[in-house]
Amino acid sequence: MDPTGKHCPKVPAHDPLVSSVPLFDPAQLPLRDWCAGSREDAVTGLVAFPDFHSHIPRALASALTSGGLVGLAIGDVDGLKGHVEQANATDPGCYGHLAGNKVMARLGAVTRTWFHTQPWESGCAATFGGDEVIIAAALDDANGFHRAVTQLRDQLADELPVRVSFALAFASAEHLPADRGAGGWKHHFTDQLLAAVDRCLFTHKATRRATGGEGGIIAITQPLLVGHVSLARDHRTLLPLPAGAETLHVLARPAGTGTRGMLLLPCAGPAGLRGKRLRVTFPDGTARTAVAVSLHGQAAVPHETAATDAIEGPGVPLTLQPVREKSIRGVPDDLAAALEKEGLDWSVLPAHEQAQTLHLITESATADIRTARITAVIDAVATRTRS
C-alpha cells in the first residue's frame, strides 16, 4: 500500500522486486571468487557496496601484482529521475519511487543472469546502492570485456524503460603505486580506479545532456600511470580503434610532443606511418576528420590548442568513428563489405596489386571462386596491414 492509502496493482509472480527483497541465496549473487561472503543489496540482488568496498582492494591488488589484467566498469541509469516523476504523474495507483525500485530490481536481475554467462574465473557485480552497477573482473583481453559490457548494455536496453550508460577502464601492474607499504594503499588505489571510471562516466553524461545526445553509451578511459607517466606501456589495456560502423566514446588526455599538442586515446595506435583517419566529435558538438597516429604504441590525435594549455577536468570526451577510405578504382560491393567487416584499409595494397586483384575477382567463373578470391584478398590485406 502506498502512502495515500491506495493499493498498488498486484505484481506478477515473476516481478523481480519479489525475488530481490530479500533474495539472499549466495549462489545467486553475481560473484566468482572475489567478494565471497558478501551480503546482497536488497533491491538489486547485487553485491552490497560496503562488502564490495571491503573485499575488492585485496582482490585487485592480488590480480595486478601477479601480472594480470583487470577490467572495471560502472553503469548508471539514464533519466531514472524523469521516469520516477512520470510514473508519479501518470500512474495514480502507485507512487513513483516504487517505479524506480522496479527498474533497479530488473537491472539487478538482468545483470545477475548476464554475469553468470561470462567466462571470467574471478570477478563480481556490485552497486553503490543508488541507480548504478559496478562490474570488476580479471581478464584475458580488454576487447572481450568491452564486448561483454556492450552485451549487458544492450540487454538492459531491451528490458528496461530507460537506458544505462557505462564507463570502463583497464588496469595492469604498471598502474600500481610505487610505494606499497603499510597504510591502506590498496583501498586508496581502488578508490582512485573507481574515481577515474566514475569521472569518465559523468563527464560523458554531462556532454550528452548539453548536446542533446542519446544515452546508453559506453565510454572508455585510462587510469593515471605511476609517477604521472602519460604514455601507456602495457598495450593490453588499450582497445582497438573503431572499425566498420563502430562508434567509440573515449576520454582523451592531453600530451605534448614538442610544440604540437596531442590528445591520447585509450586505444592501440594504428599500424604503419600513414595513421588512421577518424571522424572526431568534440564536446561542443563540432566534428572534424583527424588522423590518428601512434605514440609509443598508443593512438593520439592532434589537438588544436597549444601543448602547454591546461585542460580542466579528467580529460576531453570524444566520439570516434572510422572514415572509409576512398579507392582509386571502384571496389565491388562484396569485397567492400568484407573489408569493412574486418576493419581493413584497402589502400595498403599498392595500385598495381589492387588492379590485379580486382581483375581476378571480376573474372571469376563461379560464385565459389569469387568468394575464395575475396577471402584471399582479405588475408593479403590483413597481412600487409600487420607488416
From TrEMBL:
Protein name: GGDEF domain-containing protein
Alphabetical list of Gene3D superfamilies matching this protein: 3.30.70.270
Domain of life: Bacteria
Organism: Streptomyces dengpaensis
InterPro entries given in the database record: Nucleotide_cyclase (IPR029787), Rev_trsase/Diguanyl_cyclase (IPR043128)
